[in-house]
Amino acid sequence: MEGLPGVGLVGKIAADHLVREFDMTHVASCHCEGIPNVVIYAEDERDVRPPVRFYADEARDLLALQSDVPISPNAAVDFASCVTGWLGENDATPLYLSGLPEEKEGIPELYGVHTGDAEGLLADHDIPAPSENGMISGPTGALLAEASEQDLDSLGLVVQANANFPDPEAARVLLTRAIGPIAGVDVETDTLVEQADRIAQAREQLAQQMQQAEEESTRAEPLGMYQ
User: Fold this and answer.
1) 132: alpha, beta or left? (left if phi > 0; alpha if psi -120 to 50)
2) Rounded Cα–Cα distance for residues 152 and 188 (Å)
3) pTM as predicted
4) With contact defined as beta carbons under 8 Å apart, do 4 and 12 qualify?
């Protein structure tokens, strides 16, 4: 599963949660075009690590791409080619995640699209098709476009998400309704519910602290009937 920052940070929140809950092992680092030349360090640790990394859980046959930085949309094509090549070499079926910035009523809605012969995975797990025309842009869109061009099996999972705030609730829907069932794993998500509650209670303070980027790293958006 891919965890690039984007609308609602849904992919990043979901990937970070899986890596933490399953204590996944860092198996590879990404050095593709478009990744900022920075390093990341963690609390109480002296070593540094690249900002985009792959983690694995061999027992669960699970691979997660964890990213601490956005990928430049201008370099999305090169990044997608680089990552897709590595996934192909390792016989992975990628799940690409994107937030759809629109108002939600109740539980966020989830949609699924596919490339190659992966449509059966959506049908098997009752993940509906989109209810309107749309587009997935940024690096996640480029990854899906590359998979489509190469006729590789992949899924694009789109969930309604808050456009201005991190959305743990939407990430939880991805994990419980799509990623967990498709990957055949049980994921504890109580902590994500607690995060969602805290964020809902503190949105006024968050609005003062956060600056919305002019361009999201990745997002889904409606196109309208005739586009």
Assistant:
1) beta
2) 30
3) 0.86
4) yes
Hey, which residues does 54 pair with through a beta bridge? 28, 65
Q: Number of C-alpha atoms within 13 angstroms, CB side, residue 191?
A: 9
The encoded tokens of residue 37 equal: 């030349």
Give the pair of three-digit tokens for residue 88.
């192909």
Measured in degrees and rounded to the nearest 5, phi and psi for residue 202 equal -115, 25
Q: Which residues pair with 221 in a beta bridge?
A: 135
Residue 211 pLDDT exceeds 50: no
Report d(CA 66, CA 54) in Å as an integer. Answer: 6
CATH number belonging to domain 2-222: 3.40.50.10900
> Does the pLDDT at position 213 exceed 50?
no
Environment class of 151 (CB within 10 Å of its CB; exposed 0-12, middle 13-18, buried 19+) = exposed
Q: For the segment 191-202, what is each residue's pLDDT rounded down to a tens digit? A: 888 887 777 666
Buried b (16+ CB within 10 A) or exposed e, 19-34: bebbebeeeeebebeb
Closest by CA position to 100, among listed 11, 178, 203, 191: 11
Distance CA 162, CA 103 (A): 7
Contacts of residue 222, Cβ cutoff 8 Å, sequence gap at least 6: 100, 102, 132, 133, 134
The mean pLDDT value for 90-105 works out to 91
Bridge-based pairing of strands 110-115 and 52-57 is unpaired
**16 to 1, 162, 184: CA distances (angstroms):** 11, 18, 18
Please state the domain extents for the chain: 2-222
Cα pseudo-dihedral 190, 194, 195, 197, rounded to 10: 140
